[in-house]
Amino acid sequence: MKVTENLQVLQQQINGACQTSNRDPKEITIIAVTKYVSTDRALEAVEAGIMNLGENRDDGLSEKWAVLKDKPTWHFIGSLQTRKVKNIIDKVDYIHSLDRESLAKEINARAGNKIISCFVQVNASGEESKHGLNPEMVIPFIESLAQYKQIDVVGLMTMAPFTEDETIIRNCFRSLKNLQYEVQQLQLPYARCHELSMGMSNDFQIAIEEGATMIRIGTALVGE
Q1: Residues 6 or more apart from 200 whose CB is under 8 A from it?
Q2: How far apart are CA 212 and CA 174, in angstroms?
């Protein structure tokens, strides 16, 4: 299917989830996850009006960036190795996977005068296979970021377990929302934490109902 057709369906589903949770659909930013598709398909997404693209590998990002440049806003959504920061730092606007101080230090050192919007990645489900900080480590970690002047902590990111059990998914997203509130109470100028990056093709409606502001959609939008 064409991206425009998929987007139409997606928008209806977003509107439905917003109606259920009494939210404004304008609060939701769609990130098209283009990591498994061609540059042509990514371009099709941009031409359909999707201005936020997500990549999880530095080489995939570089390949698409060479063609699309800064037409879209670029999000790095995968686990980021410290040594790969230099390959992406001049191309991305958002990094969704800040989870350790060595990475913060490298981002800060490589950013130059650019402020990098970062999400702190949280392992809200407690699954061993998932990256991210344990929830109780998040606030001390964010407090430790005060020294890194090129990093703006715009929000938190998590991935829910891949399960049919809606209660498990909902609890995971809800716990991230609660954690966001705790961070906001600190009123740190470098960590306003006004965004929540959560929800993918299989669970974005639940994520929206639980407070997501950015949803990362691959299969349902650009295909496999």
Answers
A1: 33, 159, 215, 216, 217, 218
A2: 10
Mutual angle of helices 101-110 and 135-144, in 10-degree steps: 40
- Locate 174 and state its tokens: 């809800």
CB atoms closer than 10 angstroms to residue 224? 6
Distances (CA, A) of 36 to 16, 57, 81, 213: 28, 10, 20, 23
Q: Is the pLDDT of residue 1 over 90?
A: no
Contact, 188 vs 146, CB < 8 A? yes
Residues 46, 199: Cα–Cα separation, whole Å: 21
Between β-strands 94-98 and 116-121, what pairing exists: parallel, antiparallel or unpaired? parallel
Q: Are strands 52-55 and 94-98 parallel, antiparallel or unpaired?
A: unpaired
Residue by residue, DSSP assigns 157-211 as E----S-S-HHHHHHHHHHHHHHHHHHHHT--TT----EEE---TTTHHHHHHTT
Q: What is the pLDDT of residues 135-186, one digit of tens each?
A: 999 999 999 999 999 999 999 999 999 899 999 999 999 999 999 999 999 9
- Could you say which DSSP state residue 28 is in? P
